[in-house]
Amino acid sequence: MLLPRVCNPCMLNVGVGPHSRGSLDNSSDRLNFMGISRSPIDGTAHDLESAVRRCESTLPKLKRESSDHRNTKELQDERTRRATAEACAMEAEIQEKALKEDMINLSARLQRLSQEARQACAEQASYQSVAVDIYSAYKAVATHAEHDTHDASLGAAQSKQTCVARTCVTRGECAIM
């Protein structure tokens, strides 16, 4: 009986095969555990090819799981952004209400101040009218007093002249004509 002859490098590969198969079996179990089923696949691979197939069979599950994780993360980020946007919108609405109230208050104050300014202008016009009337009355009184003073001084002179004229007439003298 002749034993088949194998070269040394092939002999080394044959010796490594069972160890590689066991390592792939363990990797397959770990990959499957990370996937959806969360438990290792029952049984072990009998050869290197079946161990590789077991590992490859878990890859679609892992891809799906990775995609689901990424989508969940994006959804969570979107929810966070939405909550932040809603909080900003609420704050903007509160500020808008406060600004509207401020505008109403400022409009009312402006209207009140405008009315007070019109009243002040009317009072000032009234005071100016009174001042003009007082000044006119003062001028009239001053002019009249000046005339009275002038008339009084003229009247005294005339009175003196009248008195002198009377005296002259009674005595028969005529000093003033």
Task: Please sum up the structure shown.
By secondary structure, the chain is mainly α. Helices cover 85% and strands 0% of the residues. The protein contains 2 helices and no strands.
Commentary on this structure:
This protein has 177 residues and is mainly alpha-helical. It has one domain. It is 85% helix and 0% strand. It has two helices and no strands. α1 packs across α2. The radius of gyration is 62 Å and the shape is rod-shaped.
SSE topology:
Elements: H1 8-34, H2 48-171
Helix pairs in contact: 1-2
Low-confidence stretches: none
Q: Tell me, rounded to a whole number, the average pLDDT.
A: 78
Share of residues in helices = over 70%
User: What is the SS-derived class?
Assistant: mainly alpha
Relative strand content: under 5%
The number of strands is 0
Output the radius of gyration: 62 Å
What is the element string, with H for helices and E for strands? Answer: HH
Query: How many structural domains does the protein architecture include?
Result: 1
Tell the overall outline: rod-shaped
Number of helices: 2
Distance between the termini: 196 Å
Largest sheet: none
